[in-house]
TrEMBL record:
Family listed: Belongs to the multicopper oxidase family.
Domain Plastocyanin-like: from-to ranges: 39-150, 167-325, 427-553
GO biological process: positive regulation of defense response to insect; response to iron ion
Gene Ontology CC terms, in alphabetical order: apoplast
Sorted UniProt keywords: Copper, Disulfide bond, Glycoprotein, Metal-binding, Oxidoreductase, Repeat, Secreted, Signal
Subcellular location(s) of the protein: Secreted
Keyword Metal-binding belongs to the record: yes
UniProt name for this protein: L-ascorbate oxidase
């Protein structure tokens, strides 16, 4: 029989072994399982009651928290009564799982009412990401959320902080996306633009002035608990990593925290050479991490504000509370919200874009030259009496059979086989005036890229159909990160401007702004087999044709799951 001393030693050895196993398991990748249900519910995020799309009763939906290398499985049940749905995992490259990108018409058929779809993918890089509806214009009805990916346990990042917080910024309409889509699709005089948002939301909450509607309105209740301003509670003296994301359907935003300086350290999952801002400009689809120290007078709270930029400002500011513990979360600051930057001043916005560089020690050097250059002229046009957005005078339409299925199963007759234009009349086109011939064409043709080739995309902005008007367009690429080689004002010069590219420390991103009357140059390597959308992240603009699709290495894509099929000519692959 073992002595008490021997028993104690055995117990210590056993505990040490168990501790070792636990450490080993936590260092390994995990599989995270989520069960989500999409419903339509009456909600009042800005005090005005409207039908909102929710996930498990929430908008924003649940945040996914994971470590680099984890596998995420989401079983998504569509409990909408009459609507299809699809969810895109914004910023997740879907390496090896292109069918889980969640882009209806490109990588999958939509999820029908009553059906459950399984998304499965690996989060291969740490950073701040998003998810949102990618069917019609559903994103603007509240179907969105955050993805936070930490570095593997035991690893560190090149900056330190005490606590991690997360905010999503959105704009909000009282009309539904169905009303907006109907107005946008109506030809001639019946065309109805979506207009400016009714409110700006911070983490799903805002304040609409119900008095505008009159006392008889039963749809707006300023005392509703659903529209209490969101509190971000901080402990005095602590440093916070604040992950700030935008999923606006229309608006470019400025973001401020009264009396506090922000240090930008991450953009779209890549470390940034740190720089400080008092105001952060952020565009739909972008994510940033900023460091903030709670170093102001702790006896009061402070305003968090968002404001529209790049459009005439008619929407009131979005408000939240930077709450110093132990002050009450609902205690309003004693000051008025800080004044926003001028909505039409492009200079500071362009300067911030140009200031974002890759952090030293984390630079991924781009290839020195491109194999293919595609210049995309962004213009507003008409097609058969309908107002559209076009690229090189071609407005994009989605096919009935998703591209991934059509290409993998050789159903090439289901979409146009013409080659889309790779440029425009550089010499003669005047970007500062409306197009002399506003009529464009519609096509569902795609760009077929050589696998592993290096591709440059030059986004060129221009005047809209109305004089003296050029809008900001945030462009998002699925399946990839790209190097941001540069920004410029005016017309891009194919012969001179490439010499100005930043090839030393360009930041990598998945979403980038195209500033009014300017250009943005990107570079990526077509090394992710699949079919990937590249489009303006403004809901109405993509709905009106502002996008393209890239195919690369389709022969390397594995067997497609039948769960993505069931629409167009893919019905033939479903067995009863």
């Amino acid at each position: 029989m073992a002595s008490p001393l021997q028993s104690t030693r055995y117990l210590l050895i056993l505990l040490s072994f168990v501790f070792f196993l636990l450490q080993s398991q936590t260092a390994e990748s995990r599989t995270l399982n989520y069960k989500w249900e999409v419903k339509s519910e009456l909600k009042s995020p800005d005090c005005f009651k409207k039908v909102t799309l929710t996930i498990n009763g929430r908008s924003p939906g649940p945040t996914i928290y994971a470590h680099q290398g984890d596998t995420v499985i989401v079983e998504l049940k569509n409990s909408l009564f009459t609507e299809n749905v699809a969810i895109h995992w914004h910023g997740i490259r879907q390496i090896g799982t292109p069918w889980s990108d969640g882009t209806e018409g490109v990588t999958q058929c939509p999820i029908l009412p009553g059906e459950t779809f399984r998304y499965q993918f690996v989060v291969d890089r740490p950073g701040t990401y998003l998810y949102h509806a990618h069917y019609g214009m559903q994103r603007e009805d509240g179907l969105y959320g955050s993805i936070v990916v930490w570095v593997p346990e035991g690893q560190t990042e090149p900056f330190s902080y005490d606590l991690d917080r997360n905010l999503i910024l959105t704009d909000w309409y009282h009309k539904s996306s169905h009303e907006h889509a109907t107005g946008l699709a109506t030809p001639g005089s019946g065309f109805n633009w979506v207009g400016e948002p009714d409110s700006l939301l911070i983490q799903g909450r805002g304040r609409f002035n119900c008095s505008i509607l009159g006392s008889s309105s039963g749809t707006c209740n300023s005392s509703s608990t659903e529209c209490v301003l969101h509190p971000l509670t901080v402990v005095p003296g602590k440093t916070y990593r604040l992950r700030v994301s935008s999923l606006t359907s229309l608006s470019a935003l400025s973001f401020q925290i009264e009396g506090h300086t922000m240090t930008v350290v991450e953009a779209d999952g890549h470390y940034v050479e740190p720089f400080q801002v008092n105001n952060l400009f952020i565009y739909s689809g972008e994510t940033y991490s900023v460091l903030i120290k709670a170093d102001q007078d702790p006896s009061r709270n402070y305003w968090i504000t968002t404001n529209v930029v790049s459009r005439s400002r008619t929407t009131p500011p979005g408000l939240a509370i930077f709450n110093y513990y132990p002050n009450h979360q609902s205690r309003l600051p004693p000051t008025t919200p800080p004044a926003p930057p001028a909505w039409n001043d492009v200079t500071p916005r362009l300067a911030q874009s140009q200031a974002i560089k890759a952090r030293q020690g984390f630079i991924h050097t781009p290839p020195k030259a491109a194999d293919k250059v595609i210049v995309l002229l962004n213009t507003q046009n008409t097609v058969n009496g309908r107002r559209r957005w076009s690229l090189n005078n071609v407005s994009f339409n989605m096919p009935h059979t998703p591209y991934l299925i059509a290409l993998k199963h050789n159903l090439l007759h289901t979409f146009s086989q013409e080659k889309p234009p790779t440029g425009y009349d550089f010499k003669n086109y005047d970007i500062f005036n409306p197009a002399p011939n506003p009529e464009a064409t519609v096509s569902d043709a795609i760009y077929r890229l050589d696998f592993n080739s290096t591709v440059d995309i030059i986004l060129q902005n221009a005047n809209m159909m109305s004089p003296n008007n050029s809008e900001t367009h945030p462009w998002h690429l699925h399946g990839h990160d790209f190097w941001v080689l540069g920004y410029g004002e005016g017309k891009f010069d194919l012969y001179k401007d490439p010499s100005k590219y930043n090839l030393e420390n360009p930041i990598m991103k998945n979403t980038v702004p195209l500033h009014p009357y300017g250009w943005t140059a990107l570079r990526f390597v077509a090394d992710n087999p699949g079919v990937w959308a590249f489009h303006c992240h403004i809901d109405a603009h993509f709905f009106m044709g502002m996008g393209v699709v890239f195919e690369e290495g389709i022969e390397r894509v594995g067997k497609l799951p039948t769960s993505i099929m069931g629409c167009g000519e893919s019905k033939r692959f479903l067995r009863p």
